[in-house]
Amino acid sequence: MANKAGMIDRLRPGLLCSLGLCVLITGSCESEQSSAENESPTPPELSANANIPDTIEIILADFYIGMPDILPAGDLTLRLASEGVEEHNLIFVRKDNDLTVWETDGRLSPYEVQTVELNLPAGEYTAVCDFSGHETRGMFFEFTVSQ
Fold first, then answer.
1. Under 8 Å CB-to-CB from 93, ≥6 apart: which residues?
2. Mean pLDDT for the stretch of residues 48-59
């Protein structure tokens, strides 16, 4: 028994030291975390057009137009991608006066890609593929051009 008691007496200072070190480290981590939580993060610098890509992707699939529902006014670069086995065209019509303000130069063949540049003023528009009855099969999309 004396050996066990002596062994415990020798281990006790080491255990107390280890326990104290754990408490010190844990307390230090919590204070670093709480001071980090109190610091307000610096937001990244954003330009007015930070969320607008250089080229806007428009998908012309069989009886579907995939594009953003809001475009920025002014000069735009569009990448038109015809996906599917049908030919497609694309027309932009102003909703307030039903005037065509832009259209593709001819049709896009299946899987063809064209890049076009245009300038659109702010307003409400409908994008339409009117080739071979596609509009009546659901190939139109309403979108907004905003400042």
1. 99, 100, 101, 125, 126, 128
2. 75
The 3-state DSSP class for residue 4 equals helix
Q: Looking at the predicted structure, is the pLDDT value of residue 21 above 50? A: no
What is the pLDDT, as a whole number, of residue 105?
94
Are 36 and 65 contained in the same domain? no
Please give the pLDDT value at position 31: 47
Burial degree of 50 (CB within 10 A; 0-12, 13-18, 19+): exposed
Instruction: Give me the pLDDT at residue 49, please.
Output: 46
DSSP 131: G
Q: Residue 113 pLDDT > 60, yes or no?
A: yes
Give the position of tokens 């012309």: 60
Instruction: Give pTM, 2 decimals.
Output: 0.64
Angle (nearest 5°) at CA 62 between 57 and 65: 35
Number of H helices, E strands in the chain: 1, 9
Looking up residue 127, the CATH number of its domain turns out to be 2.60.40.420
132 within some domain:
yes
Q: How far apart are CA 101 and CA 81, in angstroms?
A: 20
**Cα 137 to Cα 28: distance, rounded to the nearest angstrom:** 66
